[in-house]
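Why do we bother with a discrete structure alphabet at all? Because it lets us treat a fold like text: something you can write down, compare, and reason about line by line. To make this less abstract, here is a complete entry for DUF4878 domain-containing protein. Read it the way you would read a sentence in a foreign language you are learning: slowly, and without expecting to understand everything at once.
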Amino acid sequence: MGQGGAHAHDATTDAAASVSEATLPPPPPPPPLPPSLPADPRSVDADTTPTDVVDAPAAPIAAVPPASAESPPSAARKRSLARDLTLLGAVGVLLVAALGAGTATLFQQFYSPTAFVTRYLEMLADHDAADALAVPGVTVDSSELVAAGLPERASDALLRQSALGSLTDIHAVKTVDHDGITTVTVAYSAGGHPGTSDFDVERAGWIGIAPAWRFASSPLAVVDLTVRGSMQFSVNGFEVDKRQVSAEAADDPLAAVPLLVFSPGLYSVTVDTPISQSPGIAVLSNTPMKATPIDIQAQPTKQFEKAVQTRVHDFLTACATQKVLQPTACPFGYVVDNRITAPPTWSMVSQPAIALSPFGAGWKIDPAHAVAHIKVDVRSLFDGSIRHVNEDVEFIVTGTVTSQPDGSAAISVTGIDPD
């Protein structure tokens, strides 16, 4: 019975299992366990007894990677960061290069010796005489002039805006460094005439972080001007009187007048007064601390020659009013060996045609022919007879004309014996 019972129980169990498998749908598979929580091989179904049914062992648990190994997303992020850092480095290098180039350009345009010299020339081009004189190293004293072999008392009358000429096309040509001095060569056009000049520049401390410069030798120059035939002249349209700028010229009208000028510059000297005139003479002063001589001979104006002629005619007419054989201080007269019975009568028959020529600081009257007429009765000392004289008297007029400090002219008329 015991054995049969056991078999009956097994059969019943198998039958039930068989019915269940035939009639019931298969149970859904269990949800997968999270990767981070592996299944415990020791877990069993709650309804299964330990002696009846035991679950099969679970699948092997996947190994957890070591902490030091990199996952693919982390490596990609690091490669991207490296690329970004490389790009930033390249940009930084370009910025540093651009900053260096910009600094060099800024230095060249504003703080270099070339910039210092070109700014000075641009002031001259803009007729900023006052600013140009304020540039370090421009002004000079008498000791510097003497050391350079220039006149100690050179006048500064032309260091002004109204005496400056045209200056264009300014550009640096080259720079040369030697013994702490930088020589800057600059080209330009002065009054339409091309020219070049060299300027010596030296360091003069700092302006913040930028270097400061000054002229090692002044860029000023001297025009040594001699004007014959006039006490007044003009330079680039600026009127000058020699007696106001030179003590020597007041005593000697032919004395040269030294005048300081800005260099470079084109200076046109003319004489245009009611008394005299001259065509313009232009000189280019392009060498600092050097003298440029100018010698001008003015010519009398037609108006002045006419005025002198009128004065001479008036003078000779006045001479003819004198009732003497030899009018005082006059260029004509009459000589007799006997006595005259009455004072003679003079008149002018032909007045001279006056022409002037340069003569020293003034002019001379070119010899001119003139004719006076005399009427006089002459008594013979031998027999007492009377001879009636009614003759033309020819003579030559000459003389000098000198300009006076007040602008007038002093005329001295003399005569020459035509024989």
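What the structure line is telling us, in plain words: Residues 72-111 form the longest helix (40 residues). The two ends are 203 Å apart (CA to CA).
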